[in-house]
Design goal:
Pfam families: Kinesin. InterPro entries: Kinesin_motor_dom, Kinesin_motor_dom_sf, P-loop_NTPase. Belongs to the TRAFAC class myosin-kinesin ATPase superfamily. Kinesin family. The chain is globular, with a radius of gyration of 22 Å. It contains eight helices and 14 strands. The protein has a domain of about 190 residues: Kinesin, CATH 3.40.850. It is about 25% helix and about 30% strand. The protein is an alpha+beta fold. Strands 1, 2, 6, 7, 8, 9, 12, 13 and 14 form a nine-stranded mixed beta sheet that branches. Strands 3-4-5 form a three-stranded antiparallel beta sheet, with no helix packed on it. The longest helix is centred in the last third of the chain and has 23 residues.
Length: about 350
């Protein structure tokens, strides 16, 4: 069996300074637009420079650096690692992980086909996923939060990992971010997780709306970005010019992305179909089907309807890990392909 892994994390709060009210103007993309700053500002086309050079703000002296063992020689690292406490399951912002097991696909190499992925649960170690050879020897193992076997659906257990994320994002707008990501080979059914049969995009939208139903004046907005071959594509509005940016008002975000307001999980379905179709078009335009490598990022932003705040964002990410053989059936240059996908991610 091959394995598909997905997990979730919630980043610590990041405070945002107050911003003046923003008029929506009836646009379908209600992401607050900040005015252009002075040269070198976050919305300037010129490269970012130090604040003292750009003239936008006085330089701020960083706090004194706290020295620790890790700043010393490499010989300190082993001792530092030993002294560091382990992060137990289900505590704090630790990344939680679940694994979906799917029927394996023959590689044509007998020794490889005899290796499989299994799982076991015990009171002492919790749930463990491991790789076993033909006689059952464990070759590698990892502790996880849960496993979906070949007879279960990820959608059936989505409440485990979506519920806490939805409650976190649906809180008061303060630039909080969370992430649900899915990673695996093509043969593992990775694409079914977010935009396929499992429908986690629609499920996440529905849960955020339900968690924030008592909050007046709030709305949920959706965006979809595809990163491939070092290019950023807006899957909901092809004419958008997207850049990765960071500002005090918006935090780390996709500058120029189209945000579509949705009022129910049902509203997200046509947007998912639209982004899936556009993604195929982009891949065809760029590589004529030669490579399917890319990273899809769906954003669900919970914010004030009037644009006074940027809000909180849940990112649903599909991390690509396709096989080295291209969709055309021709093996690609491994070094070039690996470099491309690693840089994109």
């Amino acid at each position: 069996a091959t394995a598909r892994q997905f997990g979730s994390s919630m980043a610590p709060k990041r405070s945002a300074s107050p911003a003046p009210p923003k008029a929506n103007g009836g646009k379908t993309s209600p992401a607050p637009q900040r005015p252009a700053t002075a040269k070198g500002g976050s919305r300037s086309a010129t490269p970012t420079r130090k604040a003292s050079d750009a003239g936008t703000a006085p330089a701020v002296k960083p706090p004194p650096m706290v020295k620790s063992k890790s700043m010393g020689s490499a010989s300190d690292l082993e001792e530092l690692d030993t002294d560091s406490p382990n992060t137990p399951l289900n505590s704090g912002s630790r990344v939680r992980a679940w694994v979906k097991l799917t029927p394996g696909v023959s590689s044509g190499v007998e020794t490889e086909d005899l290796i499989c992925v299994k799982s076991e649960t015990s009171e002492e170690t919790g749930t463990t996923v491991f790789v076993a050879d033909s006689i059952g020897r464990k070759l590698a193992s990892s502790q996880v939060d849960g496993v979906f076997d070949v007879n279960s659906s990820v959608a059936d257990g989505a409440g485990e990992f979506l519920a806490p994320l939805a409650e976190f994002i649906a809180g008061a707008p303060s630039l909080k971010t969370g992430c649900l990501f899915c990673y695996g080979d093509d043969s593992s059914g990775r694409a079914e997780c977010l935009t396929g049969a499992d429908g986690l995009v629609e499920a996440a939208a529905g849960r955020i709306l339900a968690s924030g139903s008592s909050s007046a004046g709030m709305s949920l907005f959706m965006s979809a970005t595809f990163i491939t071959m070092e290019l950023l594509h807006d899957l909901l509005e092809p004419s958008s010019n997207i850049q990765i940016s960071e500002s005090q008002f918006s935090g780390l975000h996709f500058e120029g992305a189209h945000w579509q307001a949705i009022s129910s999980a049902k509203d997200a379905s046509p947007l998912v179909s639209k982004m899936t179709a556009r993604k195929e078009e982009v891949l065809e335009e760029l590589g004529a089907g030669l490579s399917a490598r890319g990273c899809t990022i769906v954003g669900l932003r919970w914010a004030e309807s009037n644009g006074k705040s940027y809000g909180n964002t849940l990112f649903l990410v599909e991390l690509a890990a396709p096989s080295i053989t291209r969709s055309s059936g021709v093996s690609g240059l491994q070094l070039d392909d690996y470099c491309s996908i690693n840089t994109s991610l």
